[in-house]
Specification:
294 residues; five-stranded parallel beta sheet; 40% helix; four-stranded parallel beta sheet
C-alpha cells in the first residue's frame, strides 16, 4: 500500500513539473500540460522566432507571408490577415496557437480562443524583447537549449551595435512604411527602437497609432535629416522618389534617401539585428554628409 502511495505521489509530482506556464506579451499566463508538439503560427515573425528557437519542425500551420527561413514556405497555410480557415485549424489538431496582436484582428483572436486551444500573444516592440520571445518559445516547446543559444547570439549582436553607436550625434529620421497613401511607424513599433539604437530620432514617434497615415506637408515641415523606406515591389511603387521634388528638404539636399529591406527592420525576429546594422551604417553615412563646422 505504501509503495502504491509513493508511486502515485511521484507520478503527481512529475505531472506537476511537466506543466509549463509562460506569460505572453499581453500579460496573460499561458499554461501547457507538456511542451507543444503541434503549433500554428499566426504571423511571419512568429514563424521566424519558432524556427530560431528550435521549433520549426513543430509548426503545422502558418499565416501568409511566412517565408523565412526557406523551410517555412512549405508549411501549410491556414489563412491570411483578413481571413482564417477555422475548419483547417481544427483539422490540424494544434496544441498551441501563437497570435500577433497587431496583425490579427480582434475577431480572429476571439474565434481562435473559442476553440479551447491555448493561445499565446506575441508582440515584441523592443529589440531586447526578441531575445525574450526566443526564450519563451523555447520554454513552450521544450527546446530551451536551442532558444538560449539563439537568444545569446542575438543579444551579442545588439550589444556590439550599442557599443559602436552609443553617443553618436542624433539624426532625425522619417520612416516611410508606404508611399501612397503615405504611412509611417510610431515609437511603439520595433523599427523605431532600431532607429534609437543607431542614434536616430523618429520624427513621428509620438503619434498614437502604430502605423499612422501622415501628410507630405507634415514631413516637409519636420525636415528630417534622413528618410528611410523599403524596397519596391511593383513598377507602380514610387518609393522614396516621391521626395525628389522637395529639394529644399535636408534629406533630399544631402541625398540621404535610404532604401533598406523593411522585413529586416519591421519583423521582430532575430534578423532585425541585420536590419539594425544596415540602418546604423546609413545613419552614420548621413552624419558624414554634414557641413563642416567652422
Amino acid at each position: 500500500m505504501k509503495a502504491l502511495l509513493l508511486a502515485w505521489l511521484l507520478m503527481s509530482a512529475c505531472a506537476a513539473q511537466a506543466a509549463i506556464t509562460v506569460v505572453d506579451d499581453a500579460g496573460r499566463r499561458v499554461t501547457l500540460a507538456r511542451p507543444a508538439q503541434r503549433v500554428i503560427s499566426m504571423a511571419p515573425h512568429v514563424t521566424e522566432l519558432l524556427f530560431a528557437a528550435g521549433g520549426g519542425a513543430r509548426i503545422v500551420g502558418a499565416m501568409n507571408y511566412s517565408d523565412y527561413p526557406a523551410a517555412a514556405r512549405s508549411i501549410p497555410l491556414i489563412g491570411s490577415n483578413s481571413q482564417i480557415d477555422l475548419e483547417r485549424v481544427i483539422a490540424m489538431k494544434p496544441d498551441l496557437l501563437i497570435v500577433w496582436q497587431s496583425g490579427n484582428t480582434a475577431r480572429q483572436v476571439a474565434q481562435l480562443q473559442s476553440l479551447g486551444i491555448p493561445v499565446f500573444h506575441s508582440e515584441p516592440r523592443r529589440l531586447d524583447e526578441v531575445a525574450t520571445s526566443l526564450l519563451r518559445f523555447g520554454q513552450l516547446l521544450g527546446t530551451e537549449a536551442a532558444a538560449q543559444a539563439a537568444a545569446a547570439a542575438y543579444r551579442a549582436r545588439l550589444d556590439a551595435l550599442r557599443a559602436r553607436y552609443a553617443g553618436r550625434p542624433p539624426v532625425t529620421v522619417f520612416y516611410q512604411a508606404w508611399d501612397n497613401p503615405l504611412y509611417t511607424l510610431n515609437g511603439e513599433q520595433i523599427a523605431s527602437d532600431a532607429i534609437r539604437l543607431c542614434g536616430g530620432t523618429n520624427i513621428f514617434a509620438d503619434l498614437k497609432t502604430i502605423a499612422p497615415q501622415v501628410g507630405v506637408e507634415a514631413v516637409v515641415q519636420k525636415d528630417p535629416e534622413a528618410i528611410v523606406g523599403g524596397k519596391l515591389y511593383t513598377p507602380q511603387d514610387r518609393g522614396l522618389s516621391i521626395w525628389q521634388p522637395y529639394r529644399g528638404m535636408t534629406a533630399v539636399r544631402r541625398n540621404n534617401l535610404f532604401t533598406l529591406d523593411e522585413e529586416l527592420l519591421t519583423r521582430p525576429g532575430p534578423r532585425i539585428a541585420d536590419g539594425a546594422a544596415a540602418l546604423c551604417r546609413r545613419l552614420e553615412e548621413a552624419r558624414g554628409k554634414r557641413p563642416l563646422q567652422r
